[in-house]
Amino acid sequence: MSDFSLINSENTTPGAEILFYEVSKYFKSNDMVLLRNAYLFSQSAHSGQFRKSGEPYISHPVAVAGILCELHLDAVTLAAALLHDVVEDTGIAKEEISERFGAPVAELVDGVSKLEKIEFETQADMQAENFRKMLLAMAQDVRVILIKLADRLHNMRTLEVMSSEKQQDIAQETLEIYAPIAHRLGLENMHQELQELSFRFSYPNRYKVLEKATRAARGNRREVVGKILDAINQRLEEDGVGAVVSGREKHLYSIYKKMVEKQLSFSDVLDIYGFRVLVKRVSDCYVALGVLHGLYKPIPGKFKDYIAIPKANGYQSLHSTLLGPYGLPIEIQIRTHEMHHIAEIGVASHWLYKANESGVNDLHLKANQWMKSLLETLSESSNSLEFLEHLKVDLFPSEIYVFTPQGKILALPRGVTTVDFAYAVHTDVGNRCVAAKINGESVPLRTHLKSGDRVEIVTANTAKPNPSWLSYVATGRARSSIRHFLRTIQFDESIKLGERLLNQALRSFGADPETVNEAYWEKLLRDSGVKSKQDLLADIALGKQLGTVIAKRLLMPEESIARTQGKSSITILGTEGMAVKFAKCCFPIPGDGIVGLIKKDQGLIIHTQDCPTVAQNSKQDNQLDVEWGPEIERVFPVSINMAVVNRSGVLARVTTEIAKAGSNIDDIRLESDDDYTVMHFVIQTRDRKHLAHIFRELKHINEVVKISRSKNS
Hints:
Belongs to the relA/spoT family. This protein is an alpha+beta fold.
């Protein structure tokens, strides 16, 4: 009995027969038995279920397994592909899959399955959480994402049966997430087909028009392309370079993207056809390049050596654009046969090549590094939506290549800054960076990098991330690391502030915070469902819990009523960090009468007593008595307005006097007419006395007509 006959039964669908025939070419007998059992179990589980097209549902998992069979993946992966919807759609538990087919198959199925029916606030939350779970499983075993990509590819191939709105949503999600992941893992054929199908369903009219125009253009140029192909073959043969040369049509989405990015019409996109040259050895790649550069003139700046410096997904090839006959640009790719196989199937090459092949090892090392960085980003993201935001940033890396001081090459997305580079080296380097040098010259941290830059980061043990970095970093890793650090710092600061707010509330009831019964604390934490005392104190600081309510629950009811006294105020020291915010509507500074408002998820916000926001606050429980501490060692922003006569050099004199008075300017805005200019400044001050000193100095300028502090702006 042959391996194929084990599965070829009258119950087998035509698609499954083709699948079994193809896998029998490289599967062993025990692998065939596993696949047969997985197929029969899936067929039984999905019995009576149909797709929107009317086909039996089993046709979908069979097609998914067929796509993975083209990559020559192992029996465990194909069995999981056949079973990938069983847990989600039929109610069969993961434990039963594990018992019947083994833990590896069950883990893959679980990784691909969507989350069980949990309530989410929005569809976006649900999708983000599904991606989080899938990518977490992928970081443990990359075959999870291979199954998911094959699943999405078959769904895209059969998307016509969906409503146009559903087509648009699925296509956009595919273009934003799945196609870039396929590219990141080196699955170029899958990546390009996902892009083409996404383009077709996202912009059906544009797709049809472009398809028609491209078909006509290729017909007109067919003779020219044939001549070029013959010329390339002949020249390579004359120079003794053994090569396989093929014409390569550019995909519609690639042409469309070029038209959009460079604002070109279709007639302006000349390089819609390319050529691929496959040779035996790496040295032959460079010989072939020299031969072709002798045949047609290379276009300056259009050569890329991805063999010496591979792409982040392990892709290797030489790219060059040549000026062919009739001024037609010709795009050439030159690579070895091994490089071509890896370019087409990426990380799936692990199941085709021996583990000791260095090229494949490098490819898997890069994939593992990327997945490791995903795990770091996942652990540092506060929620799934934030993680998805970071993921999307990292999935569109038009790459540049920069060097560390030791000569190591780092591939980074285009648009990165020195801060992104620091976090790419190591999270600790990013957190402690204070300065940077590019090619030996000191530069601001927000400086953008370009290919070939040699970057050196200067660190200090006392340094910490600046929230302003979030406005210009480009990588998800840098953004998530900065946010994670700031959240950790804010949490520590919030604990300290929450303790002060709770102690204030306890004292207002005449209770000593040191004498609160520990048993009451334990009961409160149990009843509140909060993990720890620190979490509860942080919630108080962030306005998620009210100090007065928690204080009452900590004290015995009779004590809470009998010992109530007047409220005591909390002292603002200026060192509370991010736990205390100063309102930008009124810019309070030391010396002002102030009030504290507790806002949920924002914490304690300090306003001036005459701020309209305070008057509008109807919830007195959210309002706290606060006062300035005796010595505050920091500066505060304050908004001032100044009317001046329009004369040459007046702005320079005003800014000079502000600087001489010991203040910095944070922001400036001007409103002018023929005679006067109103200057709106945000400047830094220590307190009201310092502000009065600045005003006195500014009044010495003859052109200053009127100056005042702007509150309630």
